[in-house]
Amino acid sequence: MRRIFIVGVVSVILSLLSPSPVAGRTADTVSQKMEYLKKEYSVKFVYDSSLDLDVPYSGPSLEGRSLDKALRLLLGRNGLRWERNGDYVVILPKKYHTVSGYVTQEDGETVINATVRDTASGLGTLTNEHGFYSLTLPEGKRSLRYSFIGFPEETVDVDLKSDRRYDILLHGGEQLDEVVVTADLNSPHHTTPTGKISLTPKDLGREFALLSSPDVVKTLQTRSGVAAGTELISGLYVHGGGHDENLFMIDGTPLYQVNHVGGLFSSFNTDMIKNIDFYKSGFPARYGGRLSSVVDVRTRDGNMTDYHGTFSIGLLDGRLQFEGPIVRNRTSFNVGLRRSWLDLITTPLQKLRKNRSSDDYFRTSFHDFNAKITHVFSDRSRADISIYSGEDVFKITDEMKTERLSPEPVALIGNEHEKIDLRWGCLTAAINWKYQFSSKFYGVFTGLYTYNHSINDYSLDDKRFEGDETTFMSRWNTSNHATINDGGYRMEFDYRPDGRNHIRMGSNYLMHFFRPQNYFSESIHGDDSMIDTVVRHLQHSFRGHEVSIYAEDDIALSRRLRINAGLHLTLFNIPGKTYTSVEPRFAARYQCSDRLTLKASFTEMSQFMHKLSNTYLNLPMDIWVPSTKQIHPSRSRQYAAGAYMMLPHNLRFSVEGYYKTTKNLLEYDGGNNLTPPYEAWESNVSQGRGRSYGVEIEGSYGNERVSLDAAYTLSWSERNFPEYYAGWYPDKFDNRHKFNINLSCKVSKGVDLYVGWVYHTGNRMTVPQQLAVGPILPGPQSGYDTDYVWVYDKPNNIKLDDYHRLDLGVNFRKTGKSGRERIWNVSIYNVYSRMNPLYARIKIRDDGSYVGRATALSPIMLSFSYTLKF
């Protein structure tokens, strides 16, 4: 049995490494077949010696065919031309032409990452982030196949004698059941970079919804190589990086703040999303500015032919999206609004609840607003305006009145009023003009603006009265505002000179106007006879300039070997200092067979922006600061490699490993303030290094009804900050093992089921290991004969209990005669109510012994939502 098993395993491996057999094909080259024709038909071949005829011939047998048919099979299939002159056959070089255009849905929405493939030659390409494609093919009759996940394939027969333009409509869309696409050039088996994941609205819609809406960041947290950080928070820790090392972009505009309700939700309205490209390694040269990951979100343009919309309401928020034509087939709009709605009920109720002794008021809310207008000037020219606005509001008002009830009359003798006002959010705007210069050259010109703000206001007013006189008053007001204004441009060029090269190049510029902290405080004390006032105002502002140029080429060196080589150059200027960064990017893909692909990549990234935080919770009060003379930019270098297999029966399997190093990382110590003080921040940071490495194993199965994904990550994440510890120590989110399994299936025509289970080893914390007697120093003492100090061996020296939970989501769908679809969603978070630890503390018992206690936060949570598509 052991021998049979070994022979079977070896057979499977050899079948993966060898090309798929095709009936009737041989391994002879074109030149060898020409020798056969010379002998068989007594002809002579004339050709330029620069022609490469030592390429494999993969067609049917030439035996028993006429000379013309044999030449058509031998030379025509390889894109060669020929002319007969008696006994001479003159072979001419290939003649190429280009097919280009847009791939769109029936409503005019462009399709990102759609596959365009020539069935005869096997050459193909993907539409870019604007839905444009360009494919150069040999002259002659061609059969082009257009496909995208969820749509039936479209086939177009072309007699290619010159450059041609074909704008293709993919029919069906959401009205069809799931469609399995066999030729997907965007799958990991065909793309060149490592670590790329693409998500569509259907991928987001089949997940469970926490309290209300599907969430982009929480979906990314389920991927291998990604740590979620703290329970319920929309943190993203990719390959050992920090939560501030991820580049979030919406329609090409960077976002600094992507969290709502302290991180419970992310800022992306899934009703507006067209596509998400997520990179955790193998970053193309067109991206820069962050160390760990790229999340490139593209929003939908809007329906060019009809009016449609979506209305949804859940336990916490409501969503409304509406789109349609302004000028049919020429101009469209798409508007989406998401807003929490509980404050619309609680605020009026609190107003009615007022009484004489107290007046408490609490309000929290958030909103996301997206708007996009798209206009098609011509087949070559189109433009759009994209706007996003998001903001959180958190307010608490507490008023206490003290009254003397006797002797009569009743008199007010005290009034205390406390108010907390927190606001944070961002605004982005982008104007894009897209122009097709030729069938091979495409350009996008963008003007962009982004505004990020954080406001933290606090006031405490205390008064004491004796009759009509104020016997004592105390007023304390603080205001802390932080803003970033960015304005600039993006120029992107997409050039495909032939079927082997896909060149991208461009330039980006941002002018940063930083106001990291505008602080104002006012302290007033006294009575009616004398008032003492102390006012303090601190304001910091300065400009920075960030300009970058990049170029990359995705090159097909052969049918099996493809590389992506690029360079990203950045210049960052602040007053008194200019930094330059040269970042090489390289990725290679070797397709061993139709079933097995090997990849490797090397990338360097730089980050000129740093986030100061006194906690690990990614709070909105954290402030962004730029690199300075003393604080250098952070740098990362990452190597990745993997094997990707397409197995029979719709099974896929991949193994990917990575090794990443970082330097000039920052750890901030700003005291116990929730809002980090900006003054002298450079002296309150420590700089160090990081390293992370691991292996990610993924497997998946999918058909028309069932999709099953499983992923396992084995990883290490370590830090080295000499001020804290001499050697390497584990990062807080050094989760050694992580396992995810996600199942989505269509139970029936109207019922979809989602089940997800996640497990990872616990987060780490720093706790003291003993209480030791400290030395008695000269000077004022603590009042005890002996001083005690806590002793730590190294940071993050303990591991909390392992984390695991089960999530469940069910969609009940019903489509009426009018075509309106209704969706009822029931989601359960943490089905078996696992109390996962959030943090731990060490306490001293009365007998002097020590005990550690962990605190959990999130039990089972049930949520409902109703969605109407009209």
Notes on the protein architecture:
The protein has a 22-stranded antiparallel barrel. The longest helix is centred in the first third of the chain and has 16 residues, at 2-17. β15 and β16 form a beta hairpin. The protein starts with a helix and ends with a strand. It is mainly beta and 870 residues long. 7% of the residues lie in helices and 57% in strands. The protein is elongated. It has six helices and 51 strands.
Please work out how many helical segments DSSP would assign.
6
The major beta sheet can be summarized as:
22 strands, antiparallel, barrel
User: Low-confidence parts, pLDDT < 50 over ≥5 residues?
Assistant: 1-26
Q: What Rg is obtained from the alpha carbons, in whole angstroms?
A: 32 Å
Percentage of residues in DSSP E strands: over 45%
Overall shape: it is elongated
| Helical residue percent band | under 10%
Q: Averaged pLDDT, please?
A: 85
Structural class category: mainly beta
Distance between the termini: 61 Å
Please give the number of β-strands: 51
